[in-house]
Amino acid sequence: MEIIDGKALAKSIREDLKSEVEELKKQGKIPKLAVILVGNDKASQIYVKNKSKACEELGIEYQEILLDENIQMQELLDIIDELNNREDIKGILLQSPIPDGLDINQAFKRIKPEKDIDGFNPVSVGKLCLNQDTFVSCTPFGILKMLEAYNIELDGKNAVVVGRSNIVGKPMALSLLNKNATVTVCHSHTKNLAEITRTADILVVAIGKKHFITADMVQEGAVVIDVGINRTEDGLFGDVDFENVKEKASYITPVPGGVGPMTIAMLMTNLVKATRNS
Ligand code: NAP
């Protein structure tokens, strides 16, 4: 069994990006990220802070737009339009969740596809579905990079994705399908879940329930990717019962130190790509 070291891999990706950022700057292309944060969600504040730190480390310019939780939808759309039209801004990220009463899908749709570094605009999602070049949502993109870095074959393999959210499960399933895996997507209405997860050569879990996937749900030799982030008083836990599942897996990601660091590294990768294309 090998533990997939997302932290080390993300570090090496960031180092490569740093040189690319310097090259782009020499060509007069200055990467700059705009992050919109609406309201006071605590977890979002941590995520946004981590993104600003990553930008700083790579020499990427960064602007944070903090909006009151009572902002009207039209005001939010106007702010996105303004960022769409600014030449200095190469990538726009709207931190989710946004307060109830605001339509996040409408907001994602408003972000210009060229600046949609999170890959949540329907145009980006549609292109992923058609297996065309696009910005892929950072968490699934990071998982693909991890699998690639560890030379894990996907072609013809049975991949099971547990979770079907728009930001993780669905783009993950599409990405694996584009790599010629045979993909099954499970969710809260799935019957006989354990029977299905036991068929997985590659098992990706993104549901948000601490240690939900137990060893009996995993096939011997499976590659297990744990996306879950469950904060408890005792610390941070994944969706997979790591200690027991690792005895059966061929490869497994830890939490923390697995998928999480890769997500930010891929956000930076997408921003550099948007700058290169600008
Ligand atoms: P989400 O939007 O809440 O979606 C959860 C998915 O899990 C849904 O599709 C849901 O099914 C499914 N689900 C819930 N209970 C289930 C059960 N008992 N059996 C089977 N499926 C079940 O969550 P998300 O945004 O995808 O995030 C999932 C987890 O990943 C969270 O812990 C989140 O914090 C973490 N995350 C981590 C990163 C990272 O960078 N590491 C990035 C994003 C998210 P239904 O659709 O039927 O409701």
Would you kindly provide a brief summary of this structure?
This protein is of the alpha/beta class and 278 residues long. The chain contains 10 helices and 11 strands. The protein has helices at residues 6-26, 42-58, 73-85, 104-110, 122-129, 138-149, 169-178, 193-197, 242-245, 259-277; strands at residues 2-3, 32-38, 61-67, 91-94, 158-162, 182-186, 202-205, 223-226, 230-232, 235-237, 251-252.
Can you walk through the features of this model?
It is a single chain. By secondary structure, the protein is an alpha/beta fold. It has 2 domains: 28-114, 3-Layer(aba) Sandwich (Rossmann fold); 138-260, 3-Layer(aba) Sandwich (Rossmann fold). Helices cover 42% and strands 17% of the residues. It is built from 10 helices and 11 strands. It has helices at 6-26, 42-58, 73-85, 104-110, 122-129, 138-149, 169-178, 193-197, 242-245, 259-277, and strands spanning 2-3, 32-38, 61-67, 91-94, 158-162, 182-186, 202-205, 223-226, 230-232, 235-237, 251-252. The strands form 3 sheets. The chain has a 6-stranded parallel β-sheet. A 3-stranded parallel β-sheet has the order 3-2-4, sandwiched between helices. Strands 9-10 form a two-stranded antiparallel sheet. Helix 6 (138-149) packs across helix 7 (169-178) and helix 6 packs across helix 10. The longest helix is centred in the N-terminal third of the chain and has 21 residues, at 6-26. The mean pLDDT is 97. Bound molecules: NADP nicotinamide-adenine-dinucleotide phosphate.
